[in-house]
Please model this.
Amino acid sequence: MTRRRRLLPGWAAVVAIGATGCSERSAQDPFALMEGQGIYRAECAACHGAKLEGQANWQTRRADGKLPAPPHDATGHTWHHPRQQLAAIVKFGMVPPNAPPGYASDMPAFAGKLSDAQIDNVLAWIESQWPQEISKQRAQMLKAP
Model:
């Protein structure tokens, strides 16, 4: 038996695990999730936490008037927003229409640094980390009129 054949059952498990969670295209692709995780670790974890926990007191403005980076786990509000809005925030930063005019934030814009597909992969990876109950609540909330 070749090495390649021995790896196939393991990859089938990765595909099955990667396909659970959100229903977006990248959630079904384990390589997209791996890329998303890597980009998150390199570009986002310093502020939003290695475990998606965000910065301490994320709902209280600092002396400079800015809010600390929010968590992206189930304790935060990320899951309350549609993927399209989250992608716009990652791509363009905290600017209108995703924030009030003049909103001060440390959130950088990743346009020109990350492709739309890479941003989508990061968001898919974040969503894949949420408990199933949060994913269900989000789906229900986003379907509501």
Residues 30-48 form the longest helix (19 residues).
